[in-house]
Each structure stands twice: as structure tokens, then as C-alpha cells.
């Protein structure tokens, strides 16, 4: 099987669409280029979502992240782009992407962006399944 | 007494059905097989529930988890299946299962799924007894 | 002064009954016996309460915990019994007991049980004084 | 300049009374005496408040804490007394004091007490500026 | 390119104004002078905001922080001033600044201040994207 | 099979007597009584040894530790007694026992005792297999 | 490419045989069966070695570890057997294997075993390249 | 029994004088006065010793530490004085005292002092029983 | 000034050649390609050295590490190559490079390699300035 | 008393010159300027020494560190200069200075430098009082 970087994300059917549940992924191997200087940038990405009909396939997600390796991208824009690509792909009930960027200029930056399906509400109150704002295991680079 | 892997879960009567309380279990010894490749998969499971009339018996739970050792199972499906089996067994007021899967393809995955009895509401407001989204002691494998 | 294990809990008057405040106690020295096998069981107990007219006296609490040393007790039942004894003693506005039991059969178990005075509501909204679900310093045994 | 223990707390004008903001102070150097035995007691205090017209001056706060060094004081009473003194001094919108007492009789005790100005509500919903129940960096003595 | 301390903050257009997302920055290199004694003060600053039309440019932010190096500033006032400058610059939907000041007189101080655009409400309920009160990685100096 | 507390330790043959290797055991469930007051004492024990012809059998070790539950024992004496019993049982090349006793009188106590076979030397220089003075995971009770 | 469990370990030539250097591997996915009861056992393995002419190939090492999944094995024996297999395969200058077994009977066990080539000495004094007795990141299961 | 601060330390016979073993004590409740300013100072003390004929009695040690509460003492001098008192009392084979003083002037200070009996050598080589330079659990105040 | 990836490392004169001192650098932004599969690999590098006449210039080191971004490299070979390049460049008294590679196949790998100038000995005995085998802050990816 | 930055370090007599003991100081408030760019640099300094006849006076040390605030200084040179100044001042038996510099160019740098009095040897063997290479509590900035 060929493994090349690719923007072609793949999906698989959600095996339990009747239930609100969360899939969380920590992805410490993200790198792209700074559009201004061409120098490499690095981040750890944290994806959290409540699937509707589809889930994101793991291997294609890995190749998708790889595809940014030689592309220029601003921190805020690329975090929102990836969230947009993934949410557009699977139309989840809820999705959040957190990018923990390596330090630049002595400043450490996170970008945290969310999507919700229009009109969707967590099934229960309080909606404890919604992930907290912090993933266990945030690393200090 | 015979100890064999088994899907036959056992129960015992909830000693305090008049009260909403939480039982939490951390189970670091879960392993099954990847349905695609046949290779072993590993996870730590975290079970949290508010019992109604019944509780899950500890030893049968251990044998039940063992019974997945030679079965193929996708991450999302098996997490929801175990939640379904346990919730079906004891009809709890609330139940949540978190599976913290070992890293694959450089990506760390959690699956978190919940069940609530229809119409059930926590007795108090705010319902502080409902467990938070993170168990203390999440391990980095 | 005699120091013997004893179920006779003592109290002292709440010095500030006009205020909702929380007393939290971490008690790492609890042990009892398994009713099935007679073998010792161990737990760290975490007590949190908002007192009404009375508070639990520290030394009698220590002797009370000691009194379980040679008694058989199931995890769920004894956690609720202790909560019941303490709540019955001082009729607090709010009380929660968390028992963090040592590992058995490869499974780590917590039992968390709460009591509230009927009709009692936290004075403020949001009621930040109510303790969070996790005590700082949960130990991995 | 004289530095003597003193109950005379001083204040300074809140430089931003138009805004709800939080001042948090960790004070690891508190000691007093047990009224029963005369033996020393120790605690780390955590103060958190939203000021109204006044703030607590740092140096006088230090001397105020020092003034308890040779006084007898019960855990619950002195925590509430200090909260009362500070809240009486500056009439804050919100104030919380947490006392983390050193272990006695094998039991670790916290006392957490709050004050709110009558009728005061956090300006926003949800009121994220209100401090969480746990200060980062709680020490195990 | 000239790099001098400067109060001239710069901005760039928010690439995703249609979405509520959070930018968080940890800035451990802040120092100013105590107005009373002239001695240096140090803090780690944590900035968190939901942008509207504009974002804060990283390099100008660094030079802005540098500009306080030789200025006198009280803890509470300067924290609120920086929040005010940044909020005035970009009119964000939400902004919070936390200053974690180094210990003085044996007391550790945090100042936490927030701004919200008038009438702005988080888009969803519960508004999980709003940052929690604690940044991961608070340092003990 | 009967499980009763017992001083009868059992052994099994060292499967690799030709090699210097270390077996380390952390045993958090030790309790005995204070000979002066009759009150319970608690410790976590850490055993580390290089076996000669025999190893300590796990289940009998557990029952042996249990046998101290109702016996009076001073910290220093019982630590050395257990080391003496275990070393007498299996005549190891090297053995060390560390007892981490729960706090008493505000003071935390460790007792660390070692045995070496007369004339025994580690095979290599430097003898890196000899365990360091600290076991990972020392708990603060 | 076929991936089946296999005892056939593979090697590759050491790219820098002129230098004493250390390769360390943490392998959290080891499981075998208890020879007495047939129940699953789990361990995290830590391998550290100074290669001579050969290194252990990563994928074959993974399949080798997998091959123990359905075999009975005592803790001490299997740790030494794996060390023996690996040392026999590549005749390293130095090799150490640490097995951190999951808790059984309330007792946590490590087995640490070493091999050195006869007559081999570290090139320098002190031989700082020899790994310390503790791998960073020992997990509490 | 009277409990008053006292410089009269008491001893008890070493139950195992034939063996080199270490007693370690962590004492977080030490306070004295600064001789220059009269202000309170605080430290956590760590005592480690290999006893000869005598051991330090725990309760008298606690009262001895209490006796410094109202005395003036410089950091370096008082650490060495306490080491001298304790070593003079029991003539140990080895003794080390570490004082971890609370921050003053933005600077955190440790003082570490040792005593050895003239001519005494650890019995074995390497003398692993001698404590390492760091006690687990050093606190950041 | 141009910033392009480059193998041209630069140096500056050691300002204190009369003294043995250590320079340690943690470099979390290393990435190269797997020679077999072409997929990206990641590592954190830790460099520690005692300079002789020259030191490694920081900015050229950063560009040098960048130069591996699109090159194929095996873990063991590239770690030794970088050590060789740096040691060849500045002929240090001592140098050690540790590469902490991200997990592959469920296995976490470190490679640790050292260089010493022929005949060089640390000036003092014991040579405490030589760095320990572990850098504080090893991350779990 | 005047408090101005000053290179005039002061001393006080070592109260226990007959004993080898260690004074360790953690100083998180160091800042100077980069000689190339004029931009601020930050470091935490760790000083460890065995005094001979003199000790470094705390307040003058603080003012001395302050005196670098507006001076240009390279990392390696200034670390060695401070070590030289302090060692020249008090001629200690042993002194080590560790500077933990804030990240620059994505690289974290430590500089560790030592001084010993000519001919001085630690009094005992092994010389456990010599501090280890790592201070507890190294911060990740
Ligand atoms: Ca980070
Ligand atoms: Ca509500
Ligand atoms: Ca994990
Ligand atoms: Ca636990
Ligand atoms: Ca709401
Ligand atoms: Ca505490
Ligand atoms: Ca802090
Ligand atoms: Ca301890
Ligand atoms: Ca040697
Ligand atoms: Ca372990
Ligand atoms: Ca030797
Ligand atoms: Ca400290
Ligand atoms: Ca030597
Ligand atoms: Ca790692
Ligand atoms: Ca020696
Ligand atoms: Ca650092």
C-alpha cells in the first residue's frame, strides 16, 4: 500500500450513531513552514469530536497531517483550516481542534477552535461527555 | 473456582439504591486484536457509573475483559460495545466508559462514551457527584 | 487519656454556622477486612462537607476509622455506611465521601457518595465553594 | 521602618473598580498555636478575591498573618476569622480563603470559606473569572 | 529590521472571524520596576482571547512587553493596563490576562482580569471554548 | 486453598543463578501496631534483592506481611526484622528493604536497611545493576 | 508483508562500532500468561544496550514480543530469557532489560537483568554513558 | 504527659547496631526568627543518619524543633547547630541534615551539612545505603 | 541575513578555556525522513559538551538541524553522525548527544552517544561537572 | 538602607569552617541584555558551594544580580564571570553555578561551571555532600 502525503481524508461509518460519544486524538507530529520566513514550525494537535454518521480514518489523517510538511501556514489560519477540513469531511455533532505551537520569540501559543452542527444540543444536562478545555498530558516543549 | 475468560458478567445488589453515588474503576489490563491486521491492541479502560438496582461484580468483570484477548475489535466499536454490555447488564442511572488506546501511527486515541437511564436526572443541582471528564492518573503509555 | 477504637463519634459546634464553608479531610490510614476472604483491604478516604450546626471532632474520627480494622466490609457498602454515620451525626448541609481502594484483581476502584440536607441550596450561583470532583493529591497506590 | 506583628491591616484603592478581576495570593508561612495543647500548628493559606473599592496591602497582610504566631486558634474558627477580617476590611465583591493545614492524627485538613457582597452577581455568564476550587501548586506537606 | 522596545502594538486580520476560537499565549519574559523601591519585578503573563476582526501580532507584542522593562508599575494596575491596551487595540469578543508575579514578602500573587465585548455571548451552550481558569503548566518560580 | 496470615515464607529456585539480577517489589499494604499505644501504624515497603539459589515466593510474602497486622512493632526494629527474615530465608547476594512510614508527630520517617552475602562483590565495575537509593514512585502519604 | 508473531529476531549492522553508545527502548505492550493459572500477565519492558557489531531490528523485536502472548512464563524466568535471547543474538558490549510487571496480590514487581561481554570495560572513566538504573517515565499502572 | 518545647533530646538503643542502616526523617514544621529583623523564618528539615549505639527519639525531636520557635538563628549557623546537637547526642556513624529554607529576597536557599564518625567507612563497596543528595519530595514553597 | 538550511556549522571562541564547564542544549525541533518508507521521523535532541577552544554557534546549529528535514536517516546512524559533525567541528573535551525519538511500532527509542578528547580527564575527582545520564525534562511524546 | 544595583558583593564569616557543608541558592530573577541585539535575556541561576572562611551575603548577592540588568552579556561568558566573581570573593572549597537560560531559536541552553580550591579534596569517601548535577525543581520556562 502506497503511503504518500495527501489531502484526501477518508472516513468510516460511525458504529454507534445513536449515541453521543467523544473521540479524542493527540497528534504530536505536526510540522509546516512559516509563510514569512520559510522556517519550520511545529505543533502538537489535539482533536476531539462527537461523530454523526462518519468518523475520520486514522491512516488518512496521518497522511493528511504529513501533507502540510512543505506548505506555508500561519498558526491561526492553519488551525482553523484543519478544523474546517475535518468538520467538512464528516459533519460531526461537535468538533474541537487545539494546536499547541512550539515557542517563538519567547512566547508559547495555543489556538483552540470549535465546530457544532447547527441546532445540535448535547443529549443530557449537564453534558458531561463534552471534553474539558484541557487534554491530559499537555507537554511543555 | 474456575477462572476462564467469559462474556458472562455477574451482578450484585446495590447496597444503597436510595442514594446517587459513583463507582469508578481503572482497568489497565485490556487487550484485543486489530480486525484488519490481527496485531494486538492495548488500552486502559476507565468505567464510571451511578448504580440503580445492581452493581457489576469485580471478578466477572475481570474475566469479561479477558474474553476480548483473542477477538478482533475496532477502537470505537469495542468501546461502545463494552459500555452497551455493562449498561444492559445493570441498567444504571449513569455510566461512562473511557478507553485510552496505546499509540498507533503516531496518534494517541481516547474514546469516551456515556449512557443515562431515560428520564433520569441527577438529584441535586449542581450535580457535583457526576464525574468530571478526566480521571486522575491518566497515563502516558 | 484512653485511645481505643470506637464507633462513638464526637462533635463540636460549628463556629460559623452563618456561612457556607467546606471542610475537607484526607485520611490515608483506613483498613478493614474482605467479608468473603477475610483478607485485609485498604483505602484512602476523602471527606468533604459543609457543616450546619455541628462539626466532626478529629480525634474521635480517627478512632472511628480504626474501629473498622477487624470488621468485614464490602467496598460500596462501607463507603456508604461511613457517609451515613457521619451525615447522621452532624446533619450537614452537604457531605461527600470518596474512598480510593487499593487495587484488586488488576482493577482500581473508587466509590464516591454524597448527602445533601433536604431543600438545601448553595447560597450563591454559581456555587463555587462546592468541592470539585477531584481532591488534589490523589495517590496511585 | 518598623516591622512588628500587627492586626492593623492596610488597604489601597482598587486601580480598576470598573472591572471584575481576581487577585490570588498563596501564603505558605502561616503558623499559630493549638488552643488545647499549646503546640504549634501550620498552614498554607490561599486568598482569592474580586475587589470593589479597596485592595489588601501586601506588607500589612504579612504582618497580620505574623500576629497569629503566638495565639491559640482552632482550624475552622481561624480560617473563618481571617476571611471575616479581610472581607470586613475591604468589602470585596467576592472573597475565598482556603487553609491547607499540616497533617494531625494522620488526617490532612483543608478549610475553604467564601464571602460575596449581597446582591452581587458576576458580570458575565458563564462567570469564568471566578476562581476554580483548586489553586495550581497545592503542596503535599 | 529595527527591534526596539515600543508601545506600538500591531495587528493582523482575523483569518476566521465567523468562528469563536481562542488564542492563548504564555509569556514568561515580563519584567518591570516596583514604583516604591525601584527594584525589579518579574511575572509570567498568560493571555487568552477570542478575536473579532483583528489579532495581536506576535513580534510587536514582544516589543510591547519589553517596553515595561524600565517603567514603574504596581501589580494590579499594570495587569489591568496591559489587558486594557490589548483589548482596546483589537476589540476582541473575549480577553483574559493572568499575571503570575514572583514571590514578594513570602507571598505569591496572581492577578486575573477579563474583558468581554458588550452584548457578546458565546455562540453555544455550554460554551466549552472559553478557557478554563488555569493554564496548563503554571510554574512555581 | 487456605489463605491465613503466616510467618511461614516460601521460596522457589532462582531460574538464573548464573546472573546477577535484581528483583524489586513495592508493597503498599503493610500495617502493624505501635507497641507503646496499641494504635495502628502503616508503611509502604520496598524490597530489592539479587538472588543466589532461591527467590521469595509472592503469595507467602503477602501472607507474611499480613501476619504483622496485630503485632506490636517499632519502626526501626520491624524493618530490620523483616530484612533479617527474608535474608535468612534465601541467603541472597544483596538485599535492601526500605520502609516508608506514614507521618507521626508531623515527622515523616524512612528506614533503609541492607544485607550482603559475605565476600560477595558485584560482578562488574561499575556495578550498575545495584539499585539506586530511590525507588521511582515514592508516595507522599 | 506478512506480520505474524515470531521468535525469529533480525539484526542490522551497527553503523558506529568504533564508539560506545547506548540504545534504549521502552516497550509498553508486553503480555504473556501465568503458567500456574493461565491468566494474562502484563509488563512494560525497558531495553538498554551498547552494541558491538549488530543492532536489534525494530520490527522483528515487536513480533518477537508478540510471540509471548499465548505462552506461559514466570516473571523472573521470562525477563532473563528475553535478555538471553537478545544478548545471544547480537553479542552486545552491555545489555540490560528491566521488566515492570503489573501489580499482583497487591505487590508491584520489577525484574532487572544485565549482560556484559567478557572482558569488556567502558572506554572512559567515569563511564557516564552507562545508563542509570532508572529510565525516565516509569509508569505507575 | 507534659509537652513543652525543650532542648532535652532523648534517645533509645539502636535495635540493630550490627548493621549499617539509614533512618531518614522529613520535618516540615520548623520555624525560628531572623536575628537581624526579628521576623519569622521557615524551613523543611531532612535528617538522614546511620545509627551507632543510639537513635533519636521521635517525640523529643519534635519538642526540640519546637524550642527554636522564639529564638533568633541564621540559616547556616542553625542548620549546623542542629546537626551538631543531634550528632553529639547519639554519635552516629553518619548523619546529614538538609534545611530547605523558604524564599527570601527572591532567592531560595538550602543548607546541607554532614557528620561522620572518625575512621568510619561504609561496610560495602559501593556503599549504596548512603543516602543520595536529594530526598524525594522536595517542595517548592 | 539569509536563513536557509545548511550543513555549515559555525563556531565562536570559548570565553573560558581554562575551566571545565558544561554547555547543555535541548532541541525539540528535529525532524528527518525514514530511509525505508520516506515517512517523517521526529526527535528531541539533547547536546551536552565541555568545550576546548571553540563553542558551537546557536543560529548555525539551528540551521544545521533544519538541513536534515528532507534527508533520509536511520535513528542510530544520524545520532552518531550529528555527534561526529559537532565533535569534529569544535574538538571538545567531552560531548554527548541524546536523541529521544518519537514512538514507532509501539516502541520508544533513545540513542545516546559520547565523544571524549583522547587523554582528556576531568580535572577533579569526583568529576561532578560531567552531566548525569538524564536531562531534566525528558518529555513523553 | 539604600538598595541600588551594585557589583559590590559582601560576605560574612562562615559559622562552621571546620565542616564541609553545602549552601545552595536558586535565583529565578536574573536578566541581562544580548550583546548582539540589545534584547533582554533571562535565566534562572543555581549556585552551590562549600564555604571556606567566608559566605556570600544574601542581600548584596541580590543587588549584584540586579546590576546585570542593563549590561550586555553572552550566555557562556556571563555564567563564568559570575562564578569567577563569587569564587574570587570568598575562595570557597567548591563552587558550581548553573544558568538555565530561557529558550532562544527553539533551543534551551544550560551552562554549568565549577571551581575547586587547589588541592582541596572532599573530606570523606564517597563524598556524598557534593551536590548532584541537578537541582530539584528545574523549571521548563
Ligand atoms: Ca506547551
Ligand atoms: Ca445551575
Ligand atoms: Ca494516554
Ligand atoms: Ca488511586
Ligand atoms: Ca449557562
Ligand atoms: Ca496538603
Ligand atoms: Ca506561581
Ligand atoms: Ca513518603
Ligand atoms: Ca571506575
Ligand atoms: Ca510501576
Ligand atoms: Ca568500585
Ligand atoms: Ca524548595
Ligand atoms: Ca573516582
Ligand atoms: Ca520520551
Ligand atoms: Ca570508593
Ligand atoms: Ca529549562
Automatic annotation (TrEMBL), chains A, B, C, D, E, F, G, H, I, J:
<comment type="function">
    <text>Catalyzes the NADPH-dependent reduction of 7-cyano-7-deazaguanine (preQ0) to 7-aminomethyl-7-deazaguanine (preQ1).</text>
</comment>
<feature type="binding site">
    <location>
        <begin position="75"/>
        <end position="76"/>
    </location>
    <ligand>
        <name>substrate</name>
    </ligand>
</feature>
<dbReference type="GO" id="GO:0008616">
    <property type="term" value="P:tRNA queuosine(34) biosynthetic process"/>
</dbReference>
<keyword id="KW-0521">NADP</keyword>
<dbReference type="Pfam" id="PF14489">
    <property type="entry name" value="QueF"/>
</dbReference>
<dbReference type="InterPro" id="IPR029500">
    <property type="entry name" value="QueF"/>
</dbReference>
<dbReference type="InterPro" id="IPR016856">
    <property type="entry name" value="QueF_type1"/>
</dbReference>
<keyword id="KW-0560">Oxidoreductase</keyword>
<keyword id="KW-0963">Cytoplasm</keyword>
<dbReference type="GO" id="GO:0005737">
    <property type="term" value="C:cytoplasm"/>
</dbReference>
<feature type="active site" description="Thioimide intermediate">
    <location>
        <position position="34"/>
    </location>
</feature>
<dbReference type="InterPro" id="IPR043133">
    <property type="entry name" value="GTP-CH-I_C/QueF"/>
</dbReference>
<dbReference type="GO" id="GO:0033739">
    <property type="term" value="F:preQ1 synthase activity"/>
</dbReference>
<feature type="binding site">
    <location>
        <begin position="56"/>
        <end position="58"/>
    </location>
    <ligand>
        <name>substrate</name>
    </ligand>
</feature>
<comment type="pathway">
    <text>tRNA modification; tRNA-queuosine biosynthesis.</text>
</comment>
<protein>
    <recommendedName>
        <fullName>NADPH-dependent 7-cyano-7-deazaguanine reductase</fullName>
        <ecNumber>1.7.1.13</ecNumber>
    </recommendedName>
</protein>
<dbReference type="InterPro" id="IPR050084">
    <property type="entry name" value="NADPH_dep_7-cyano-7-deazaG_red"/>
</dbReference>
<keyword id="KW-0671">Queuosine biosynthesis</keyword>
<comment type="similarity">
    <text>Belongs to the GTP cyclohydrolase I family. QueF type 1 subfamily.</text>
</comment>
<feature type="active site" description="Proton donor">
    <location>
        <position position="41"/>
    </location>
</feature>
Amino acid at each position: 500500500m502506497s503511503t504518500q502525503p495527501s489531502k484526501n481524508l477518508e472516513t468510516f461509518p460511525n458504529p454507534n450513531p445513536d449515541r453521543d460519544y467523544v473521540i479524542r486524538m493527540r497528534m504530536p507530529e505536526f510540522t509546516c513552514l512559516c509563510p514569512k520566513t520559510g522556517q519550520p514550525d511545529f505543533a502538537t494537535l489535539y482533536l476531539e469530536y462527537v461523530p454523526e454518521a462518519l468518523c475520520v480514518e486514522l491512516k488518512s489523517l496521518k497522511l493528511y497531517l504529513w501533507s502540510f510538511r512543505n506548505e506555508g501556514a500561519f498558526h491561526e489560519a492553519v488551525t482553523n483550516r484543519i478544523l474546517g477540513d475535518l468538520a467538512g469531511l464528516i459533519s460531526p455533532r461537535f468538533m474541537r481542534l487545539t494546536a499547541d505551537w512550539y515557542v517563538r520569540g519567547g512566547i508559547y501559543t495555543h489556538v483552540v477552535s470549535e465546530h457544532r452542527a447547527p441546532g445540535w444540543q448535547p443529549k443530557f444536562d449537564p453534558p458531561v461527555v463534552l471534553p474539558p478545555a484541557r487534554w491530559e498530558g499537555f507537554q511543555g516543549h
